[in-house]
Automatic annotation (TrEMBL):
UniProt-listed InterPro entries: SWIB_domain, SWIB_MDM2_dom_sf, SWIB_MDM2_domain
Domain of life: Bacteria
Pfam families membership: SWIB
Molecular function per GO: isomerase activity
Name assigned to this protein: DNA topoisomerase III
Length: 95
């Protein structure tokens, strides 16, 4: 009984979803963090994470929680959010 061998080739590169790459305009509250220029969602998320790390807003005990400062509180409407909840809340501030 012969077994078929799979060829060890590189997987084809994934193309990013066009919806994520479309430039979106941030709200005034979000613009205070990422800037007012239109950006793709992926870049908005990167810039928000840069802001969080720069200002030490990731919870020390539980790394999945983000503690909002005055600027982030305007976006999140909460004092603390999970990193998974954060993306949904940011999307509400993009047009």
């Amino acid at each position: 009984m012969a077994t078929a061998k799979k060829t060890a080739g590189a997987a084809p590169a994934r193309k990013p979803n066009a919806a994520f790459m479309k430039a979106m305009t941030p709200s005034a509250a979000l613009a205070a963090i990422v800037g007012a220029d239109p950006l793709p969602r992926t870049e908005v998320t990167k810039k928000v994470w840069e802001y969080i790390k720069k200002h030490g807003l990731q919870d020390k005990a539980k790394k999945t929680l983000i503690n909002a400062d005055a600027n982030l509180h305007k976006v999140f409407d909460k004092a603390q959010v999970t990193m998974f909840e954060m993306t949904k809340l940011i999307n509400n501030h993009l047009k």
